[in-house]
Amino acid sequence: MRRTWRWILAVLIAIVLVTALVLWLLLRGSLAELEGEQALPGLAAPVSVERDALGVVTITAGSQADAMRALGHVHAQERYFEMDLMRRSAAGELSALFGPVAIDADKRMRVHRLRARTEAHLDEALGDNPQAVRAYVDGVNAGLADLSVRPWAYLLLRQSPAPWRASDSVLAGLAMYADLQDPDNQNELALARIRDVVPPALHALLAHDGSSWDAPLQGEPRGDTQLPDAAQLDLRSLAAAPAAPAAEADAVGSNNFAVAGALTADGRAIIADDMHLALRAPSLWFRVRLRYPDPKAPGGQVDVSGFSLPGVPAVIVGSNGHVAWGFTNSYIDTADFRREPANAAATVHEERIAVAGQGDVVFPVRETAWGPILHTHADGSGDALRWVAHLPGAVRMDFADMARAGDLDQALATANHAGIPAQNLVIGDRSGRIAWRLVGARPDRGPGCVPQGFNTAQNSADCAPWPIRSDAAPALVDPPGQRLWTANSRVVDDATLAVVGNAGYDLGARGQQIRNLLATQDRFDEHDLLAIQLDDRAVFLQRWWALLQQTAEHSNDPSLKRLAAASEHWDVRASTNSTSYRIVRGFRGDVLDAIESALLAPAKARLGDDYLPPRLAQLEGVVWPMLEQRPANLLPPGVDSWDALLAKAARTLEADLEKQGPLQQRTWGERNVADICHPVSRALPVFTRRWLCMPADQLPGDRDMPRVQGPSFGASQRMVVSPGHEADGIVHMPGGQSGHPRSPYWGAGHEDWVHGRPTPFLPGPAQHVMKLVPAR
User: Fold this and answer.
1) 110 in Cβ contact with 90 (< 8 Å)
2) Tell me, what's the pLDDT at 147?
3) Phi first, then psi: what are they for 40, rounded to 5°?
4) Nearest to 42 by CA among 72, 17, 16
5) Among 621, 330, 257, 275, which Cα is nearest to 497's?
6) What are φ and ψ of residue 304, in 5° steps?
7) Above pLDDT 70, what percent of the chain?
8) pTM to 2 decimals?
9) Do the strands 270-278 and 442-443 form a parallel or antiparallel pair, or are they unpaired?
């Protein structure tokens, strides 16, 4: 019997070892080839592909088409699964990979029919140089085919990758629309419905679009709201239903800023850019340097470095030795709802959603001349949405021409035909000039047809279906102050705002902090701008700390005294070891939640099932005047006084924190822990996080300061660079270059991002060289 058990145990061990070996070989087979010589069909001449210690790729080719073919090959070998997720998320095709769990997500995007629209207008989307796009597509498919085993995530899902098409590169661009603009346009619809059922003074509070933290480039700050008196609004007299505030949204957006040559020692313009997006492993971006001859480029040569987006044949942000550029999300109004009657002329499209493991789901989409119906009411009428992303030209690959721009004027001319989501473009050139420009597709609403926005009663029924445009955009070239800054808050003056609209500008605290830091010096270098990017001071919470201390002073409640004592040392920063920051942030959040709930409760009572929670990004500009003036007519029902409201918020916070242990140990770092993982990790056992996630580091920074960092959102890249001085440039990127956990580049460079250590902008010495040659 003992011999039998030994034999069984030996067999089991052998099976485990063989299984592990097979898995290891399968994983190994989907790693990118880094060295040697490999044939790539379609090349006109050999191409060199170098990788440095961080996996940053340098492609040296004899033409743009060959460079794009090689870039496609590299993107596919390192990131094909992630590219696939982007095109599928935009097209509403995730269920074909993940099964029924993704059906609702697919319906949310399939109502926009982005694949059908892309296929119908593909030639316009490919722009003036379709050969480069098609070379990239061929390179992608060749790179996928050259892997001896399909990418590892497909093995886990028991799926096979579908080939890449030119329309998929357009869909990758449309995926960025879905990330940066709300495909449901919910805020606009929510506030429009609220406007119809509450007193005008209450709607004006909810729709107020600024605060004392405004720091626009053009025009004056909007400032805090003027509070209504009891004759205009008395919350205590309105019927109300409990209304939970909207969940805190991730800080989707970015910072960018620039200084002109007059503010540097040698006349260089310097651009800083950090784009805030959802974080994952691998990073969204892929660092690359492209070098190839081009007769339209200065000196007949393109040499551009920066961040590419796998799936798209272009460097998205970077520098080409003559011009450097970066983006922040603009939050202009790019979509309008229109109420369509039940008998409105409409076409019904039967969208067929493929679902892994079961039959297809047929999803009917009803569409009018204005756009698809997203909501249907009891009387048969519907809310139709017109969104920039629906229209031809929303994505155009011509922005890749930025790689050959020779100066600021040429870069601005390129922006005139850029089909990208509407962004704040900040540019600097080699001569020291800088500019801001609104870039990307925006509605061309025409005379008399204004954006619905957050605070206008315009009915889009008065408008004809509008086209889009990207030229003749607002701009600020060669600013008198020699400085530029944007941070997703309002940039433009009132007259321009009336044209471009407001889709939910962020609180201006971040932008104001950057503006003020830029004003403290008259000489800058790259490290000075990096220091601004890494600034984690909680400037706008200073007054909330003082308010918390005052609340405790005016109370005999022991819990408030404990909270005040734990936060007595105000260190200003969202540092990982700060208890005071965590407490003050939590106190402000509970106070805002209480007031927001009271302001929204009357609308929820009137609207019932039609109620949608809006995101009130500018609520600080309403709440702070309330706390200063303490008006009885705006006191939430059921609360005796403003002091009582503040004390209740503090007690609630103290109780929540005490449950976790001693107050003094409740640091910000304890809560702000990195959760940056591969997308498939959510469906796998917890122990796999060891291989599929970046380390669970405690992170400094937060939302309303330059160093935006949360567990799974924050700076998806950082860049500080001066055109012509790229060797002095600095970058950071979370995650790594490769999407393969067994690659040496899976997390390479991530620790520099965590700790803010400068990483060189240009690739380092080559550690691996692959030679791609024309196929015989």
Assistant:
1) no
2) 96
3) -130, 105
4) 72
5) 330
6) -120, 135
7) 94
8) 0.94
9) unpaired
